[in-house]
Design a protein that fits this description.
Elements: E1 2-3, E2 6-7, E3 16-19, E4 24-27, E5 35-40, H1 51-69, E6 73-78, H2 96-103, H3 110-130, H4 146-158, E7 162-165, E8 168-171, H5 187-196, E9 208-218, E10 225-227, H6 229-241, E11 245-251, H7 255-270, E12 275-281, E13 284-286, H8 301-306, H9 311-319, E14 327-329, H10 331-350, H11 360-374, H12 379-391, H13 397-411, H14 427-441, H15 445-457, E15 460-465, E16 468-473
Parallel strand pairs: 5-6, 5-11, 11-12, 13-14
Antiparallel strand pairs: 1-2, 3-4, 7-8, 8-9, 9-10, 15-16
Helix pairs in contact: 2-3, 4-6, 6-7, 9-10, 11-12, 12-13, 14-15
Bound molecules: adenosine monophosphate and zinc ion.
Length: 474
């Protein structure tokens, strides 16, 4: 049945996700259905997000949309880190935000740090708008949540997990028996970072800073300074979603250090699992290389536009890969995705009607697509099924349009408003279209082709559809 453009299916799929915590696909059962809490580690707002970063949020958005489509009431939190993220995730090096303050020629102060953070938060929001990512319900930043972070350190100290050194307060991982549950602990990296910038007072190489002393920052019971990067996610996720919520997301790079540390901090205090499902997206590489400043391949949404690739074309390309598969970005691949995306838009635009009900054949397609998305968000399979369905002559065009637009609530490709691209023809073009229709009726194909060219010369692309010709500005 279709209700106000929304298909409500008499079909209750068992949604499964691959959980990094248990290393297997699991049935999704929220703590308190229909409510679902999702926390996604957000950007460090010291620079514009690159195309790789943005995959993490397209993925989180798909997850949210899919759960909402299945009538869950999602609360989505994405943090923006505006203090405390050092150049190495192992708490060594300089503060990335402080480096940005210097780069932007501002005086070094907390005010400048916050100003830079706000500038890049605005750009982040513009990027997620371009990608049709729904805004999170909360977008907290650590500079606004000092009390919560200080309180968490106090509790850790009381319970014997925290100790002071001359450069900060650290978490003693040997006190947390299950440290490293998510796995992937990179001992070699830890030892290397300990070698480069050793704090001989640290009890274990993997101990991490809860509070670092320094001139930039705020007062605390331990001294002037700022919170450690991992602390903000523990404090803010528990504040907005409770001590034990449903889903935590982030890129795979967060597994070894950041997420193991979040678990250690939160669970030492609460005694409960921080999140039940840990979902991680794989990385984007560009021309088979890591995205990095030193390679000069840090591409942003603006770079796409200069190559005539739309942000939603990029979103389409992302959906052609599974979120747990690494993807290799090339201009050729993006151009192909843009063309296919436009084809899908044109197909949807060319169809006027939306079917009010679905035939059994259409329902079968619908169920296949639901099953693909239920299987750990298999978007490449879901998109392939959409294209197969388009070719199925047993479905009416109106049914196809209904199904595509219905799943676009999950894909987020904005196919429903693509209709706006269709423009009213000026009178002289309208006259050419009508003349061409007469030529076609008389099977005068050379004249029809010539008229199509004359329409193009006026700046319009003409498409023949089952409902008659449509035009679009070139
Ligand atoms: P950052 O701003 O560095 O904290 O990163 C923001 C998000 O982007 C994190 O969830 C990272 O895991 C993710 N990320 C960073 N680089 C990539 C990449 N090349 N491909 C996919 N995700 C990435
Ligand atoms: Zn985080």
């Amino acid at each position: 049945m279709l209700e106000s453009g929304k298909i409500s299916y008499n079909y209750d799929p068992m949604i499964q996700f691959y959980n990094t915590l248990t290393k297997q696909k699991e049935d999704f059962k929220p703590n308190e259905a229909p409510r679902v809490g999702i926390y996604s580690c957000g950007p460090t707002v010291y620079d514009r997000a690159h195309l790789g970063n943005l995959r993490a949020y397209v993925f989180a958005d798909l997850l949210r949309r899919w759960l909402e489509k299945n009538n869950f009431q999602v609360t989505h939190v994405i943090n923006v880190t505006d203090i405390g993220h050092l150049t190495s995730d192992q708490d060594t090096g300089e503060d990335k935000m402080a480096l940005a303050v210097t780069r932007e020629g501002l005086p070094m102060s907390i005010e400048s740090l916050i100003k830079v953070g706000e500038k890049y938060t605005d750009l982040f929001l513009a990027d997620i708008d371009a990608l049709n990512i729904k805004h999170p319900h909360h977008l907290p930043r650590p500079s606004n949540h000092l009390a919560e972070q200080i309180e968490l350190i106090k509790q850790l100290e009381e319970k014997g997990y925290a100790y002071r050194t001359s450069d900060g307060v650290y978490y003693d991982i040997s006190r947390f028996a299950t440290y490293g549950q998510l796995g992937n602990i990179d001992l070699a990296a830890q030892q290397e970072s300990a070698r480069i910038e050793s704090n001989p007072e640290k009890r274990n190489p993997a101990d991490f800073a809860l509070w670092k002393f320094g001139p930039l920052g705020w007062e605390s019971p331990w001294g002037h300074g700022f919170p450690g990067w991992h602390l903000e996610c523990s404090a803010m996720s528990m504040k907005y979603l409770g001590e034990s919520f449903d889903i935590h997301t982030g890129g795979v790079d967060h597994i070894p250090v950041h997420h193991n540390n979040e678990i250690a901090q939160s669970e030492a205090v609460s005694g409960k699992p921080l999140a039940h499902y840990w979902l991680h997206n794989e990385f984007i590489r560009i021309d088979n290389k890591k995205i990095s400043k030193s390679l000069g391949n840090v591409l942003t949404i603006d770079d796409l536009q200069s190559q005539n690739i739309s942000a939603l074309g990029y979103r389409y390309w992302l959906l052609t890969g599974h979120y747990r598969s690494p993807m290799n970005l090339t201009w050729e691949a993006l151009r192909a995705a843009e063309t296919t995306y436009k084809k899908l838009v044109d197909f949807v635009v060319s169809l006027e009607a939306i079917a009010p009900t679905l035939s059994p054949d259409a329902t079968t397609w619908q169920e296949k697509i639901i099953n693909a998305l239920s299987d750990d968000l298999n978007t490449p399979q879901a998109l392939a099924l959409i294209w197969e369905m388009i070719k199925d002559s047993s479905l009416s065009p109106a049914e196809k349009k209904a199904i595509i637009l219905d799943f676009d609530q999950v894909f987020g490709l904005n196919l429903a408003s693509a209709r706006q691209e269709v423009v009213e023809a000026p009178n002289e073009v309208q006259a050419l279209i009508e003349e061409r229709e007469r030529a076609r009726a008389n099977q005068n194909w050379p004249l029809a082709d010539e008229l199509r060219q004359r329409i193009a010369d006026q700046g319009f692309e003409l498409k023949d559809t089952p409902n008659g010709p449509t035009i679009k500005k070139i």
